[in-house]
Specification:
Layout (H helix, E strand, L loop, with lengths): L3 H29 L7 H21 L6 H7 L3 H4 L5 H6 L7 H14 L5 H23 L2 H4 L3 H15 L8 H9 L8 H8 L3 H26 L13
Amino acid sequence: MEYRFNFISQTIGMFVNDMFWIFFWFLIFQKFGSIGDWKYHEMLLLYAVLPLSFGLVMVLFGNWSSLSKMVEEGGLDYYLTLPKNELLHILVKCRYAGMGDVVFGLVMAFFTLSFQKIPLFMTLVICSGLILLGWTIFVNSFSFYFGRFQEAARAAREAIMIVSGYPFSVYSGATKFILLFIIPAGFVAGVPVELLTHFSMKWFLITVGFSLAFFAFSVWFFYNGLRKYESGNILAMRG
């Protein structure tokens, strides 16, 4: 908050960006009425889940998108001198630009959900955040194995966000399976929205179980790659 203008401008900027997407989908649904079995209400729910989960991850774990760069430039040296749980030390950094998404997601939830669904909503947001964070850890960890992977990791992170922002009803068959269990974009927003509109205990348990398992796998993949890490011999003083 020392730089209040930057904080406020970034927060408003992210909020306005999300508003543009809502307006875009409003125009689409005004013309076509529905996409598959999704109507405009489902898109509003999607833009409650997706921005909130993304914003929380960005605010709490601000270094999540910088892992590849740190690996390539030897930037993990400092963190490896800290007590165990190196990954947590690496990830934790507040980036307040994500507050715009957090506020937007909460506003959308207020207007689209009943009070009784708030516990389910927050549980699904946590699952969505675990998928986003796990996916980013996973793709960035390839830098341990292949060296320069920064651009590919960035593209993979952006791809899951883009795919997650479309109505899940447009996907079917093999594509739907891939977007659930290979590139888990479906669990980021699509499945949570469907659970909020038509609850299924089976899919709720699958969502919770898969998000926990995928995140655990991503953490394992990171630490397995960390064994291959080569120091950058960087000396740095940090407060």
